[in-house]
Each structure stands twice: as C-alpha cells, then as structure tokens.
C-alpha cells in the first residue's frame, strides 16, 4: 500500500472507528493475554535524525525527529514539521481520535505491522504529548517550519518499538489532491526501547 494510502486510512479509520485503547502489555502481545509482566524502559537517549516526507515535490509536508529521550518519569522528543505547500495547516492535537502529537508503541519495527494495524483499525493508543517548547504553532503557514520539543510524563514499555505521531493537521483551504483535508502522520521509522 502506498504511504499516501496509509495516511488517508489513518485519518478515515480514526474518524469512523476510533482507536482501540490498549494496555502496554496488550500492545506488545497483540490481542493475546499477557503471560509476563511488562518492564518499564529505563532512561536512555536516542539520536534519530529521521526525515519523512508526505506529498509530491513542491507540495509536501516534511516531518523530522531529531532525538528521543526516556527519563525516569517520562519522555521527550525533538521534532519538526516543515510546510512546503501553498496553504496553511492548522495543528490540532487531538483533532481526531488518536490523532495527537505523541508516541505510539508497536510490537515490531516492521512497516508491515503499521500498515496491517492501520487497515484493521487496531492502531495502538497514542501517548499524547502534554507539553511543547516552544508552544506548538496554531497554524503552520506556507513555507514555514516549527521545531521544538514535545514531552509527557509516564513510563514506556521496554522492548516496544516506538513511532512518533504528528496530528492532527487540518488544511486551511483546499489542499492538493495528493494530501487530503486532514493528516495524521505516524513515522515509518521506529526505535526499540531498552530496559
């Protein structure tokens, strides 16, 4: 499935079906019951340098993840969004169910899992960011960039693969046909959390 198809399905799936809430153990075990207790990821720093692009050249949204830190009482990620389109995008955390800025934990780092869980509306709950530094832009104007840090309290599960979620982005005006009116971006790249 094309990456554009994934994004459309994420937005539509979130709107129509909502996201299933899952415990940490349920995320790691899929739909089976847990047989072992999960362990919280310990403090760690990951330099990621991810850059992912959505759209066609000249009309793209660019998502970057510079780093991820797990601390003793939460997590923080250095991220950015670059608007290379001709219209503004309203950044609306929580604009769609599951469409918020934060982290999502997966069983594997394989993009096939992301695709399959997206198609079956079984994406894991997003660990939403609760703080942004600097404040998240209300509207990302054409050719503008927002870079900063998002963070939240709470533990993450060791061994889980984490992906960064950007959303919800809502077009201010008529978007190019290849982008759609709303975008929730879940990174193709994933990082495995250590104990």
Walk me through the structure.
The chain has 195 residues and is mainly beta. The chain has one domain (3-30, 38-186). The protein contains three helices and twelve strands; from the N terminus they run H-H-E-E-E-E-E-H-E-E-E-E-E-E-E. Strands 4, 5, 6, 8, 10, 11 and 12 form a seven-stranded antiparallel β-sheet that branches. The protein has a five-stranded antiparallel β-sheet with strand order 1-2-3-9-7, with no helix packed on it. The model is unreliable at 4-35 (pLDDT under 50).
Low-confidence stretches: 4-35
Query: How many β-strands, per DSSP?
Result: 12
Q: Helix tally?
A: 3
Q: Helix amount, in percent? A: 10-25%
Termini gap: 33 Å
Q: What profile does the largest beta sheet have?
A: 7 strands, antiparallel
Instruction: Please identify the structural class as seen in this structure.
Output: mainly beta
Average pLDDT rating: 84
Strand content: 35-45%
Shape descriptor: globular
Q: What is the number of independent domains?
A: 1
Order of helices and strands: HHEEEEEHEEEEEEE
Rg computed from alpha carbons, rounded to a whole number of angstroms: 16 Å
SSE topology:
Layout: H1 3-16, H2 24-29, E1 44-56, E2 59-71, E3 74-84, E4 88-91, E5 102-106, H3 111-119, E6 127-128, E7 131-133, E8 139-140, E9 145-153, E10 161-172, E11 182-186, E12 191-192
């Amino acid at each position: 499935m094309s990456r554009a198809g994934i994004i459309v399905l994420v937005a539509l799936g979130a709107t129509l079906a909502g996201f299933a809430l899952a415990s940490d153990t349920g995320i790691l075990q899929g739909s089976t019951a847990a047989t072992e207790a999960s362990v919280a990821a310990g403090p760690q720093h990951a330099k990621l340098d991810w850059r992912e692009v959505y759209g066609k050249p000249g009309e793209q949204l660019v998502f970057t993840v510079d780093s991820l830190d797990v601390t003793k009482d939460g997590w923080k990620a250095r991220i950015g969004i670059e608007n290379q389109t001709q219209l503004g995008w309203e950044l609306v955390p929580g604009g769609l169910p599951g469409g918020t800025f934060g982290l999502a934990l997966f069983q594997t780092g394989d993009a096939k899992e992301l695709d399959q869980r997206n198609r079956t509306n079984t994406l894991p709950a997003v660990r939403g960011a609760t703080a942004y530094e600097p404040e998240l832009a209300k509207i990302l104007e054409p050719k503008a960039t927002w870079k900063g840090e998002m963070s939240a309290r709470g533990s993450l599960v060791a061994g889980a693969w984490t992906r960064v979620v950007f959303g919800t982005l809502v077009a201010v005006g008529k978007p190019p046909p290849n982008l759609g009116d709303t975008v929730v971006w879940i990174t193709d790249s994933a990082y495995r959390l250590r104990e």
